[in-house]
Amino acid sequence: MAAPSFLVFSDDWGEHPSSCQHIFRHLAREHQVLWVNTIGMRTPRLTLGDARKVVYKAKKMLLGAQKGEKASAPQELRLRVYQPPMLPFAANPLVRKYNKAVVVRGVRRELQRAGIDRPILVSTVPNAGDYVGSCGESRVVYYCVDDFTEWPGLDHRLVREMERELIGKADVFIATSEKLRRRLAAAGKPTCLLTHGVDPDFFRRRAEGEHALLAHIPRPRVGYFGLFDERSDLHMLRKVASALPGISFVITGRVEADISALRELPNIHCTGPVPYAELPMLVQGWDACFLLYVRSTLTDAISPLKLKEYLATGKPVFCTPLPEARALAPFLHFASSAEEWIEGLRGLLSGERMDSAEGAAARMDFLAGESWQRKAAIFREIVTAADGNRQTLSC
Hints:
Layout: E1 6-10, H1 19-27, E2 33-37, H2 48-63, H3 65-69, E3 79-82, H4 93-114, E4 120-123, E5 139-144, H5 156-169, E6 172-175, H6 178-185, E7 191-193, H7 200-204, E8 221-225, H8 234-243, E9 248-252, H9 260-263, E10 268-270, H10 279-284, E11 288-291, H11 306-312, E12 317-319, E13 333-334, H12 338-349, H13 357-368, H14 372-384
Parallel strand pairs: 1-2, 1-4, 2-3, 4-5, 5-6, 6-7, 8-9, 8-11, 9-10, 11-12, 12-13
Helix pairs in contact: 1-14, 8-12
């Protein structure tokens, strides 16, 4: 039997790696993949940041994803990238109708060019529900990585409508958190939990010298990398940083929240984004990692990709006790209140060792079984199972 092929609707290939990109970097070694860069579901605002995003996305659409993306992907991958000329403003029925026509026509053309017939359609985004059933797919997998119905800045009513349509058309659900799994399982279809993986060897890499962005930031340093938005507890971070002026708090990544109050503090440093390949070098210069989130309906459903990446660096990790973080409890330092955060981080000032040698070894043993290669194999097993009676699929 020929290996199945895949049609994937997800985030832009080649940007900061998502769980779906990690999985398909492995699957695309043996399976043909057409990856479709989708447009965001948030309506652009009249801000400089959004204007830059629109210009960047428009360039990719005009120039064609193949020219820019193929060079960034390893040559051994059997993966093609397609960037359809989509429009934002999905709340407008005419825009959705236009997007559907353009995307379906383009996808069918690209599938034909690649010689892909009846692929397994995988989507991480609710708006792909508009295209399901029109691309000649053999089955549909909703790989649910976040609760987009609660995501900051989105039209929640519209996203719920889109997700309901996708859920109705999907054959199999894969969720990255237990809360998401329970919500999807209510549809009565095969639903599996697949937690995020990690590349331990990548984050264990050691570089000579310190990253240039840290040159003028005093130690000890506590760092965060990734998207910094309304999920982060800005009020508590300000309180903790004010109480610990001897610790530098480093925020690396795109900022999509009003952090003007944080910028007033001399020990909070925003470096901006860095290339993914430079993250190990950057974190090497930190003394600990932190993840300080507001507890909400949204954050109670997420499984932060960065948590296992933090652990793989070997640095102590301080974290809000999110439900999905509890499985990693033996390797994390939890803090709920500002007082707990302050008390926990004070040990860094005295040079106190935060993790024992035995604990560090146990952590690396755990992460060895959480590789993206293993997660990709499990993903493939789930989506290719139950060709006949899909209700027999078990996870």
